[in-house]
Amino acid sequence: MRQIGRFLMGLLIGWFVGSLVGLLLAPEPGSNTQQRIAQAYQKFLSDIREAANARRRELEQELERLRKGGSTQSTP
Predict the structure, then answer these.
(1) Distance between CA 45 and CA 51 in Å, rounded?
(2) For 19-34, what is the mean pLDDT?
(3) Helices of type H across 1-76
(4) Phi then psi dihedrals of residue 66, to 5 deg
(5) With contact defined as beta carbons under 8 Å apart, do 62 and 72 qualify?
């Protein structure tokens, strides 16, 4: 039981020291970092939507080919 207490105390101290060092050495204010993260997230979502739409168009074209009796096999 004593070892668990020591481990938890070490974990808590490590978390505190790591957080403090991170705040002191951060290259930008928190508001700038939050804005950059939000912009990156929005770009990520936009890229995912684009990829999903492109894939949907491909699948719709393939479905149309299948409905017309075409083959999905490509010849090398």
Answers:
(1) 10
(2) 79
(3) 2-25, 30-67
(4) -65, -40
(5) yes
